[in-house]
């Protein structure tokens, strides 16, 4: 089993829709988490960090559920420009940053 | 602030040839990572440096891959000899320290094609 797992998708949603992705992790020692966005043929870029209490940045909300060992990303009012691959990352106590395989989102007009 | 710089951007070589990638991290970032990303997959760690020390190279195929980070700044990753299966994007990333909440900053990667 991979340490960080994501549904590869693709998630095909219309503009304006709300979409959510989950990411599960197996290492209970993971201390922090991040969501990255990766456009086609580009490098991953930080979208947001994930805090225990949950955090919001505009249309994006990230949540951490330690009991069930998953993190989530919610995107409200989807835009065409949100089309990308979303990567979740877990950081364990040993400073190891492990990526999931990514979830592909396609927002259609 | 200048970002992580990688070169070359693209490299095409024949199998069995050597190849090297270079990375200059963000100034002041002590921790440097090399990842490999295959098409449709997430980045997979090859090696991590804390300053000039390789602290995690368990995923590095040591029979053909080598890396160095002299003086704890720039880093090079080498493959010799390259195999067809090495075709991938090689990403370098850095972060300022060992704080668990500091995110990675990536360079734009080197896309390697082995023919």
Quick synopsis:
By secondary structure, chain A is mainly beta.
Class based on secondary structure composition and strand pairing of chain A: mainly beta
- Secondary-structure element string of chain A: EEEEEEEEEEE
* Distance between the first and last residues' Cα of chain B: 37 Å
List low-pLDDT spans of chain B: none
Query: Structural class per helix/strand content of chain B?
Result: mainly beta
Distance between the termini of chain A: 37 Å
Provide the helix percentage of chain A: under 10%
Give the overall pLDDT of chain B as a whole number. 94
Spans of at least 5 consecutive residues with low confidence of chain A? none
Number of strands of chain A: 11
- Shape verdict of chain A: globular
Strand content of chain B: over 45%
Q: Return the string of H and E elements of chain B.
A: EEEEEEEEEEE
Taking all Cα atoms into account, the compactness measure Rg of chain A is 13 Å
Number of helices of chain A: 0
3D structure, described in words:
The complex is a heterodimer of chains A (109) and B (115). By secondary structure, chain A is mainly β. Chain A is built from no helices and eleven strands. Chain A has strands spanning 4-6, 11-14, 19-25, 32-38, 45-50, 55-57, 60-65, 70-75, 84-91, 97-99, 103-108. In chain A, strands 2, 4, 5, 9, 10 and 11 form a six-stranded mixed sheet that branches. In chain A, strands 1-3-8-7-6 form a five-stranded antiparallel sheet, with no helix packed on it. In chain A, strand 6 and strand 7 (60-65) form a beta hairpin. Chain A is globular. By secondary structure, chain B is mainly β. Chain B has no helices and eleven strands. Chain B is globular and about 40 Å long. The termini of chain B are far apart. The interface between A and B is medium-sized, with 26 and 25 residues.
